[in-house]
Amino acid sequence: MTAKTHEVVRVELAERSYEVVIGAGVREELPRRVSDLGDGDVLLVHDGPDRPWPAEARRSLESTGRRVVECMLPTGEEHKHIRTVERIWDSALEADIDRRCIALGVGGGVVGDLTAFGASTLFRGVSLCQLPTTLLSMVDSSVGGKTGFNRPQGKNLVGTFYQPRFVICDVETLSTLPREERIAGLAEVVKSAWLENEDAVAMLEADADGLREGDLAATVRAVGMSVRMKARIVAEDEREAGARMLLNLGHTVGHAIEAAQGFRGVRHGEGVALGMVAACRVARTCLGETPDEGRLLALLERLGLPTNLDDHYDARASSHLVADKKRRGGSIRFVVPTAPGRTRLEAVPVDEIRRALGV
Ligand SMILES: NC(=O)c1ccc[n+]([C@@H]2O[C@H](COP(=O)([O-])OP(=O)(O)OC[C@H]3O[C@@H](n4cnc5c(N)ncnc54)[C@H](O)[C@@H]3O)[C@@H](O)[C@H]2O)c1
Ligand SMILES: [Zn+2]
């Protein structure tokens, strides 16, 4: 297996710096990169017994003489809770693994966040590596060190900051991902480009047809751009005291739409696409900005993402917005998309947001 295209992005965090390898076929680097971390056992965590990637990872690691302990998790966001974390801890402890062990998450953001939390707490922290296999986890969740799980009171309310030792984003693993899941992940890619700059948005416009159809080279470029953007912001603000909040572009209204549908209607990425449309509207109506909404809509549509905000944003979504945890004294900290590469945080009164969105 030869890597066709290959990019390495470094996340600069002093002694916690690490590399993100992006390409087609780059999972062949897994055994070597794990060897660089020492000779401990590998705790392989995944939720895809029928997918080739976990089994392949196991074989490639075992072929170097390493012991691999497998921990299979149930699939889905509804299993992102403490009992699933216990399964990770117990798989390790029952196999008599010691603190030299290396935890490896192979899967989407749910597996990644749970593996990372498990690794950050097992023996007070063991080495962590990630092999993300959804577009969302490649461009967002596997990079940046946020770990955690859900509570009945809300999502991701308990967790840690814990950086991986490396991340391998092999776009070939997306071949088994349902098309709608892959397309939903493209919303985060558009968000990344808007936070990055004009060149990034222009690149997505040029690659839009290829991205929609899953072209590998176009996907490598898009993942590379997204990871570079996220690495830059995380290096600046690891613990979300400022710049990292910009990554919430499109998420305030997107989350309200998801919540109003009980997280069973639109996918997260679809909510983010609609949320970015809403953010343009708020920027224009409440702040007198002139974001190029037509350009954003055209790009989202070419990628196969929804833009029909008025069909999704209703009174129930509006009430979730009012209850938004970011609300402070009647205002919401809103990420304002002025132009590609020009975004800022601004406190916007919730009543004005509702007026801009018509509900
Ligand atoms: N840590 C962070 O900074 C961060 C950032 C964004 C999102 N997240 C978290 O990420 C999670 C969402 O991630 P997600 O969208 O990857 O969801 P997911 O992990 O649930 O994956 C989606 C579905 O695809 C399946 N799947 C994964 N890889 C596959 C493949 N290659 N082929 C076929 N099926 C595959 C999964 O089993 C699952 O059913 C949420 O829990 C969210 O909170 C975390
Ligand atoms: Zn998101």
Total of helices: 14
Number of strands: 12
| Hetero ligands | nicotinamide-adenine-dinucleotide, zinc ion
Determine the mean pLDDT.
95
Percent of residues in helices comes to 40-55%
Distance between the termini: 54 Å
Strand order of the largest sheet: 1-2-9-6-5-3-4
Q: Please outline the major beta sheet.
A: 7 strands, mixed
State the order of secondary-structure elements, H for helix, E for strand: EEHEHEHEHEHEEEHHHHHHHHEEEH
Backbone CA Rg: 20 Å
Which parts are unreliable, with pLDDT below 50 for 5 consecutive residues or more?
A: none
Strand fraction equals: 15-25%
Structural class: alpha/beta
Q: What would you call the shape?
A: globular
Describe the 3D structure.
- A hairpin with a 2-residue loop joins strand 11 (331-339) and strand 12 (342-349).
- The longest helix is centred in the middle third of the chain and has 21 residues, at 216-236.
- It contains 14 helices and twelve strands.
- Helix content is 46%, strand content 18%.
- By secondary structure, the protein is α/β, with parallel strands linked by helices.
- Nicotinamide-adenine-dinucleotide is lined by residues 47-48, 51, 75-77, 80, 107-111, 113, 133-134, 136-137, 140-141, 144, 146, 155-156, 173-174, 176-177, 181.
- Nicotinamide-adenine-dinucleotide binds next to helix 4, helix 5 and strand 8.
Overview in brief:
This protein has 359 residues and is of the alpha/beta class. The protein contains 14 helices and twelve strands.
